[in-house]
């Protein structure tokens, strides 16, 4: 048994970023053609495109502000013209900002998290779900966070955005399930990325001490779960919030 995405087209938002590029490589390794979305890092997106094409899959880069519906709709048309209708959408892009207390956090940061978590999810659904319905199936995978269950100090804007995203995804799962479209979320813990490896910052004893598996997860471990949920192996899983955090958070029944 293996994850086989041959013949599928995947779009990953924020694919030029630390976690996004590993997801792109992983879905491509499973046989998917990949649309690499970026907002500002065109050079990294083009570098990733060349890397994926060298493995034998088709790839393209596409620029868009995912907080703007008209740009997401235009992105859909670009990807459809270049790779065909999208089968798999991975919502990974998010606006970065400096975390601080509720009393000190700028209101604009809450707006930014709402736009990049909630509105991105809505825009991607409006753009890509109709073609999935026409094809009789599809996969939407949203990248959430363990923070949505932790609610620690200074996390408020991020948690607000991601918990809003969670609501959209759960409702959408019920609305489109009859079309064999699955809607799931992957919730990483504090993940080791290429940046950590380059800087030698993979370890954090204070964080690791709280994790049952006593370590931080890796970007590849997150991407593996995304690939699973994008595949036919997960055809009867929808509406799920799946922590990939070494047991650091555990949804209760």
From TrEMBL:
A GO molecular-function descriptor: oxidoreductase activity
Keywords: Oxidoreductase
Keyword check for Oxidoreductase: yes
GO process terms (BP): bile acid metabolic process
InterPro entries assigned: NAD(P)-bd_dom_sf, SDR_fam
Record's keyword annotation contains Nuclease: no
Recorded family membership: Belongs to the short-chain dehydrogenases/reductases (SDR) family.
Matching PANTHER family: OXIDOREDUCTASE, SHORT-CHAIN DEHYDROGENASE/REDUCTASE FAMILY (AFU_ORTHOLOGUE AFUA_5G02870), SHORT-CHAIN DEHYDROGENASE_REDUCTASE FAMILY PROTEIN
Name of the protein in its database record: SDR family oxidoreductase
Organism annotation: Cohnella rhizosphaerae
């Amino acid at each position: 048994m293996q994850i086989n995405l041959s013949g599928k087209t995947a779009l990953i938002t924020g694919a030029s970023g630390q976690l996004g590029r590993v997801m792109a490589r992983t879905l491509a390794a499973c046989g998917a053609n990949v649309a690499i979305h970026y907002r500002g890092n065109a050079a990294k997106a083009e570098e990733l495109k060349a890397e994926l094409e060298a493995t034998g899959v088709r790839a393209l880069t596409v620029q868009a502000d995912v907080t703007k519906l008209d740009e997401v709709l235009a992105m859909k048309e670009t990807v459809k013209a270049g790779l065909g209708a999208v089968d798999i959408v991975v919502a990974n892009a998010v606006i970065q900002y400096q975390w601080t207390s509720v009393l000190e956090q700028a209101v604009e940061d809450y707006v930014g998290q709402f736009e990049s978590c909630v509105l991105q999810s809505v825009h991607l659904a409006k753009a890509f779900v109709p073609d999935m319905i026409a094809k009789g199936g599809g996969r939407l995978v949203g990248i959430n966070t363990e923070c949505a269950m932790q609610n620690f100090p200074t996390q408020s804007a991020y948690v607000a955005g991601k918990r809003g995203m969670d609501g959209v995804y759960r409702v959408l799962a019920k609305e489109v399930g009859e079309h064999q479209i699955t809607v799931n979320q992957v919730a990483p813990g504090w993940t080791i990325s290429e940046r950590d490896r380059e800087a030698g910052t993979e370890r954090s004893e204070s964080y690791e001490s709280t994790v049952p598996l006593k370590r931080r997860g890796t970007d590849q471990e997150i991407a593996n779960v995304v690939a699973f949920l994008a595949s036919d192996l997960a055809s009867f899983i929808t509406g799920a919030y799946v922590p990939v955090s070494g047991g650091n958070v555990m949804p209760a029944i």
